[in-house]
Design a protein that fits this description.
- The chain has 42 helices and no strands.
- Helix 19 packs across helix 21 and helix 30 packs across helix 33.
- The radius of gyration is 33 Å and the shape is elongated.
């Protein structure tokens, strides 16, 4: 036990009511009763506590734990300090837990301690938690203060230090379970315990070895999850002894639980909302850390475990028994208000399973989770919530792997093991029942979420669909065979070739049934309340299906199902005020309408009054960061349509569509350009707003194609002088473009996305930026030519590390 903790012990003995009155008496006890009357001064005996304590701080010898204090002193001060006998019990536990001791006696003392600490811990997972937090010296704090946590770690790790014989000296399963439970209780109740355990790498790795025992698995997994959550450095999964064998030994329930631990080891640490979120800081960090991160290394380690992904797919798509009755949903929510800590629910389910195992042969088959006579006596909602909670963790792990460097390898395996058809079969009965209410704040991928299991499950499902579809040819697995045929028919009718990804889709791996997963998603999307945060994730998932090289057939498939009218209703008529939802709908609308003359015709049919159109423009202008992708779509589409003057249909829509007519006016395009450049700078660029820079570039690239780039640059200069702030737009834009060069010329994926989404070769992007950054002040296409010398502020050191 650390010496500073011993100081706390001595202080704690005086920290009680009327301590000022009794302090002299207590210190007299600590100092000892022997004294010399010579000179009337008290003499401290050589064996006193304070002397030994002071000497131990200097020499490092002496007291090592609080329980080494005299038993008489501990008992005398126990009631006054409100220790409730914990130090005395710890003394007995310590004395009875030596390597050659009868550990059955030690276990009996631990059980008494456990019962005292469990009451306190339970208050942290129920509505009574406030009482425990307000306690001055809670039981778990006292337990840790007197070295209880360190003692239990010693007991647990003893088998690694000595040869164990099968007798009463052995650390048996029940003793291990109680040690782990007490440690977990201390972690959740007393600040600092979890961090101190996390600092011991040997103990963390040792805990994984305990997971081979099914009887201690649950307690071990729960403790590891807490410890890894606060550990400063992410562990190396390859450092776990025989990880592959460990994972393959798990039954399906254990594997599902293990995913809770894995989620901490494969996710990049959340950098929060500080400057590290800026692209400038991220680029600098990537330059410093060129090698793969620990999370990326851990992802590779998992993928190398035979059968790992296949078993996760089975877990994700496994069916569970459905509850019936009108009160089911209410019952489910009532259970959740109490079960806000997974330990409670897992413990109840484990008790049921263990009791069932006594009367039947234990099975590790994936269906074992839903078997056992006692389990049928548990509330049906508990069984479903239990399965849902595990599916959330499994989907999260799959989602993280899908976004990693081994994305193509993961995609191939998910397709092979029929993850998407399996989820499609669960959609109506489990994933998306009629019960859908969600008004919570939208979270990032790595951000903690306090949503109910049902809501978390739906969001994680939508995140998975988004990651699965995004810029990948496997997106067509979200359809069934009939829907794939429909896409082929659309292409044939339009006299355009089918996209290669559609032709290459393995039809044995697509969805079954009357509807594919994408169509089912569209159906529930239209039923969501206006401000439901599910709309955000639903729109993101559908948008990812459209992202990449624009496919007319994909767009028409969704247009036929009324998606455009639904989006416009949400933006114009629903009263939706959520910026997150509106942004996702603007982005989706942009992908749906891009280069599609039929979509613009449908738009004009829905937005058929000046009032509606003005409402639409107001929504766009209220936040260009949110709507700029739609602005880019309109500008690009207008440019293409203006080059198709021989197409009667295109000419007709160009003349009638209010949106195209609005963007055709140069003053409106310039207005967007001014604001897009003005709302960002290099220091504030993030992954979210860098699209504003690219949209402004699109406007200027199209102007350059028509030899109008000097006109636009001169308009920027005129705007500066009109606002009496010469140089503020052009200097800022110059610095932004310099950053653009460094950011995109080294990122293949980003450059491909820019090319696919705009249908402008990336070589033209690079060429245009180089022209704009030209140093020749006589060039009419160089930004520097339009900044008067006194106002030139091109910060050459801005991007230096």
């Amino acid at each position: 036990m650390p010496l500073n903790c011993l100081e706390q012990v001595i202080k704690a003995s005086t920290s009680c009511p009327n301590s000022s009155v009794q302090e002299e008496e207590i210190m007299a006890t600590l100092l000892g009763s022997e004294s010399s009357c010579t000179g009337g001064k008290r003499r401290v005996c050589n064996g006193s506590i304070v002397t030994k304590f002071t000497a131990s701080k200097i020499t490092g010898q002496g007291f090592s734990r609080g329980t080494e204090l005299p038993g008489g002193l501990l008992q005398e001060r126990d009631k006054r300090a409100k220790w409730y006998g914990i130090p005395t019990l710890l003394q007995r536990l310590y004395e009875s837990s030596h390597p050659n001791s009868d550990l059955s006696n030690a276990h009996s003392f631990l059980k008494v301690l456990s019962s005292q600490l469990s009451v306190e811990a339970m208050s942290f997972v129920t509505e009574d938690r406030k009482t425990a937090q307000e306690s001055t010296f809670p039981n778990t704090y006292t337990f840790d203060l007197f070295g209880g946590v360190h003692l239990l770690v010693e007991i647990l790790m003893r088998p690694t230090l000595t040869v164990q014989k099968k007798n009463n000296n052995t650390v048996n399963d029940d003793l291990v379970k109680d040690c782990l439970s007490v440690l977990y209780n201390c972690c959740i109740c007393t600040e600092g315990v979890t961090k101190s355990l996390a600092a011991r790498d040997d103990f963390v790795l040792f805990l994984f070895t305990l997971m081979t025992n099914k009887k201690t698995f649950l307690q071990t997994a729960t403790l590891i999850e807490d410890i890894l959550g606060v550990k400063k450095e992410m562990i190396h999964l390859e450092g776990i002894p025989n990880l592959s064998g460990l994972v393959q030994s798990f039954d399906q329930q254990q594997l599902a639980n293990f995913c809770r631990i894995l989620s901490v080891t494969i996710s990049e640490p959340d950098v929060g909302n500080d400057d590290k979120h800026t692209l400038l800081a991220k680029n600098a960090q990537q330059k410093r850390n060129a090698s793969p991160s620990r999370a990326e290394v851990n992802q590779v380690t998992l993928l190398n475990i035979p059968g790992f992904i296949e078993r996760l797919c089975k877990l994700a798509t496994r069916k569970v028994s459905e509850a019936t009755g009108a009160n089911f949903l209410q019952e489910l929510e009532e259970w959740y208000t109490w079960l806000d800590n997974a330990l409670v629910l897992d413990a109840l389910m484990q008790m049921a399973t263990e009791e069932a195992d006594q009367s039947s042969t234990e099975s590790s088959d994936e269906s074992s989770l839903a078997t056992g006579p006692l389990r049928h006596r548990l509330p049906q909602s508990m069984k479903i919530v239990h399965e849902i909670m595990y599916k959330v963790e499994v989907l999260y792990v799959l989602c993280v792997l899908l976004m990693g460097r081994q994305r193509n390898q993961v995609h191939k395996m998910l397709a092979e093991f029929r993850l998407i058809p399996g989820l499609n079969n669960l959609f109506d009965k489990l994933i998306w029942r009629k019960y859908t209410t969600s008004n919570h704040v939208v979270h990032d991928q790595n951000e903690n979420c306090d949503c109910s299991p049902e809501i978390s499950f739906k969001i994680q499902f939508l995140r998975l669909l988004q990651s699965f579809s995004d810029h990948h040819e496997n997106k067509y697995l979200l359809l069934n065979s009939q829907e794939l045929n429909e896409l082929s028919a659309i292409s044939m009718k339009a006299n355009i070739p089918e996209v290669e990804a559609l032709v290459n889709t393995d039809r044995s791996l697509v969805c079954d049934g009357k509807k594919g997963l994408l169509t089912r998603l569209l159906t529930v999307m239209k039923r969501e309340p206006p401000d439901s945060s599910f709309r955000f994730w639903q729109a993101r998932a559908v948008e990812s299906f459209l992202r990449g090289a624009t496919s007319y057939a994909d767009q028409m498939f969704l247009l036929k199902r009324g998606l455009l009218e639904h989006i416009l209703f949400c933006i114009i008529d629903s009263g939706c005020t959520s910026r997150d939802v509106l942004q996702s709908y603007f982005d989706l609308l942009g992908e749906l309408m891009k280069f599609n003359i039929d979509a613009f015709k449908r738009f004009n049919k829905y937005v058929n009054t000046p009032k509606k159109f003005q409402t639409f423009l107001t929504q766009i202008n209220s936040s260009l960061v949110d709507s700029n992708m739609l602005v880019r779509c309109i500008v690009l589409s207008l440019d293409r349509f203006e080059n198709l003057t021989e197409d009667v249909k295109v000419v007709e829509v160009l003349s009638e569509c209010c949106l195209l007519s609005y963007m055709a006016k140069v003053e409106n395009r310039l207005s967007f350009l001014f604001r897009l450049i003005n709302i960002i700078n290099v220091q504030t660029l993030t992954q979210e707003n860098v699209s504003c820079l690219n949209t402004s570039l699109v406007v200027l690239m199209l102007a350059r194609r028509k030899a109008k780039l000097p006109f636009y640059l001169n308009a920027l200069r005129d705007k500066e002088y009109a606002d009496k702030y010469p140089g503020f737009l052009l200097n800022n834009f110059h610095n932004l473009l310099r950053f653009w060069q460094r950011h995109y010329l080294n990122k293949d994926k980003d450059s491909t996305c820019l090319e696919n989404s705009s249908c402008i070769p990336f070589s033209y992007w690079k060429e245009t930026v180089s022209v704009l950054l030209g140093s020749d002040r006589t060039s009419l296409c160089a930004i520097a030519s339009y900044i008067d010398e006194p106002f030139m502020d091109l910060d050459r050191d801005l991007l230096e590390d």
